[in-house]
Amino acid sequence: MADPTRRRILERLAGSGECRVTALAKPFRMSLPAVSRHLRVLEQARLIRRQRHGREHLIRANVPGLEGAHKWIMQCALHWDSRFDKLDELLRNEPISAAQRKENHEI
Question: What is the pLDDT of residues 33-72, one digit of tens each?
Fold first, then answer.
């Protein structure tokens, strides 16, 4: 999920439902094998599913996998929000030095 190419692939799949690998690769400035490597990573993370029909590979988003990723991301966001709240409180309660007071009056 940290890679922008993978995020864009997931966004495209969310909007299209199911897509051929060649269609997914089209907007990217990279080789088809490079896109396939991104797809393998997403598949291993259970964020997409691949269905093969002969030589054609159809890719679709794996909704349960995406829900699990969403839940994890939301937990991380809550954790960081609480950390930022604590940092904000710490900074508000920190005594202001004479140099900072002088700087604030000049503004």
Answer: 999 999 999 999 888 889 988 888 899 888 777 777 778 7
CB 94 within 8 A of CB 78: no
Bridge partners, 22 (sequence order): none
Is residue 72 a contact partner of residue 65, using CB atoms and an 8 Å limit? Answer: no
Token readout for 30 is 């990279």
d(CA 21, CA 2): 21
| Alpha-carbon gap, residue 19 to 57, rounded angstroms | 8
Is the pTM value of this prediction over 0.85? no
Each residue's pLDDT tens digit, 70-107: 787 788 888 888 888 888 888 888 777 656 666 666 65
CA 95 to centroid of chain Cα atoms: 38
* SS3 at position 56: strand
Identity of residue 8:
R
Strand partners for 51: 58
